[in-house]
Specification:
By secondary structure, the protein is mainly beta. The protein has two helices and ten strands; from the N terminus they run βββαβββββββα. A seven-stranded mixed sheet has the order 6-7-8-9-4-3-10, with no helix packed on it. The radius of gyration is 14 Å and the shape is globular.
């Protein structure tokens, strides 16, 4: 099986107070979840290992929101309110980057697959297999 080479892609929140880099292949495979928070915010998940994420600026400008099990740590920019990344419940060892906050120029293909987050408990196994 051919290993896909990863490259570093830059990203940021709307006001650019929070900036980051994410290492991912040029073929982006995203997840579009329909849970209450993702559906309301239009979040597109690019889930990566923790070592494939670097926060460059703005750590002091982030605030955290949790709900339900309080496992997921949703991080928002205090200035513009955008959630550029967070620690997901499905992959607590990784980071879910909001692909809408990533510069797209380094990607050759972008695909998205739906995930039924409204029925999270019944479907999370499928998400963890990705």
């Amino acid at each position: 099986m051919k290993t896909k080479t990863k490259i570093w892609h830059k990203g940021h929140c709307h006001c650019q107070a929070v900036a980051f880099e994410v290492s991912a292949p040029s073929e982006a495979k995203l997840t579009a979840c329909n849970c209450s928070i993702c559906d309301m915010t239009g979040y597109l998940h690019l889930i990566v290992k923790a070592e494939d994420f670097r926060l460059l600026t703005g750590e002091d400008n982030l605030t955290t929101y949790t709900f339900n099990t309080h496992t997921a740590k949703h991080t928002f920019c205090k200035t513009c309110g955008v959630k550029p990344f967070y620690k997901p419940r499905s992959h607590p060892e990784g980071i879910s980057v909001n692909f809408r906050c990533v510069e797209k120029s380094g990607f050759d293909t972008i695909t998205s697959e739906g995930f039924d987050g409204q029925n999270w408990e019944n479907n999370v196994k499928k998400l963890r297999e990705k």
